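can u do me a favor
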């Protein structure tokens, strides 16, 4: 249930920096024009999966620039390939803007389109910087626009996760039958403070630590308390909806801090019996029972 999600759809900032200083040989590619194709109308059920699929492809296109920059090719060859790859990225960006979102996701879609516009401007500035490498202002503007795109993307993607959870989750029942399982959790969720583990037979799969100051730590398998591979962030319990929100802000992998990591996961507290905590993550279709350690 608590598997670590290493792919974050916030686009890395500095992929385009330091690509070389040689003059580009050959003609640059034409600027991508906005498509006038019919909009792709999506339902509330298939909007999030479709957007996620596009985000994965979009990220892969951008990461290919890093691969090109790290290759053994000459700087002139690298610049030509980067220039072409930017055209591919701009075409991919148009696919986001060609989506007609359902009513539930209209606000999210506007935010995504805003982010994509920033990215597109940033990459267009990058093309101009490749063409005229003496103009450092273009590179600066490129990075500024991409940073603005990161901020807009992060905000909209978090909204997407929240709305998707609300659509999937059934309203929390207030029947007498459900109350005994969670009635012993106070408004601030202080009873959750402590170290929790998820076990499979005799093996620890995950360790989750809730600190009194609102900080949480999530460790894969039985790696706690080493700090080589874990996620750290803030936790918050909402007693009205029985939701436990974990906002991951830092991820360490092999002792190294991952850049531009941000992840929001929302769980429903199904039951709490002092030393046992049952959580459900409707968005991922997962649930599990943790034991106090």
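np, heres the sequence
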């Amino acid at each position: 249930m608590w598997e670590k999600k290493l792919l974050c759809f916030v686009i890395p900032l500095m992929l385009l920096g330091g690509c070389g200083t040689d003059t580009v040989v050959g003609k640059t590619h034409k600027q991508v024009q906005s498509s006038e194709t019919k909009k792709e109308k999506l339902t509330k059920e298939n909007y999030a999966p479709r957007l996620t699929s596009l985000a994965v492809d979009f990220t892969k296109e951008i990461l290919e620039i890093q691969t090109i920059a790290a290759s053994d090719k000459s700087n002139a060859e690298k610049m030509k390939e980067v220039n072409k790859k930017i055209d591919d990225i701009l075409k991919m960006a148009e696919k986001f803007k060609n989506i007609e979102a359902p009513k539930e996701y209209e606000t999210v879609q506007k935010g995504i389109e805003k982010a994509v516009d920033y990215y597109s401007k940033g990459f267009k500035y990058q093309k101009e910087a490749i063409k005229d490498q003496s103009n450092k202002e273009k590179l600066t503007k490129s990075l500024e626009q991409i940073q603005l795109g990161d901020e807009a993307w992060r905000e909209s993607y978090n909204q997407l996760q929240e709305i998707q959870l609300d659509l999937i989750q059934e309203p929390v029942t207030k029947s007498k039958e459900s109350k005994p399982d969670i009635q012993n959790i106070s408004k601030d969720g202080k009873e959750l403070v402590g170290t929790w583990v998820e076990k499979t037979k005799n093996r620890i799969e995950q360790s989750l630590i809730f600190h009194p100051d609102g900080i949480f730590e999530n460790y894969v398998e039985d790696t706690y308390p080493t700090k080589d591979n874990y996620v750290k962030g803030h936790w918050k319990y909402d007693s009205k909806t029985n939701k436990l929100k974990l906002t991951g802000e830092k991820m360490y992998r092999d002792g190294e801090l991952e850049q531009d990591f941000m992840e929001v996961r929302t769980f429903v507290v199904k039951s709490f019996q002092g030393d046992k905590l049952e959580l459900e993550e409707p968005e991922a279709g997962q649930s599990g029972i943790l034991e106090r350690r």
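Residues 129 and 139 are 6 Å apart (CA to CA). hope that helps!!
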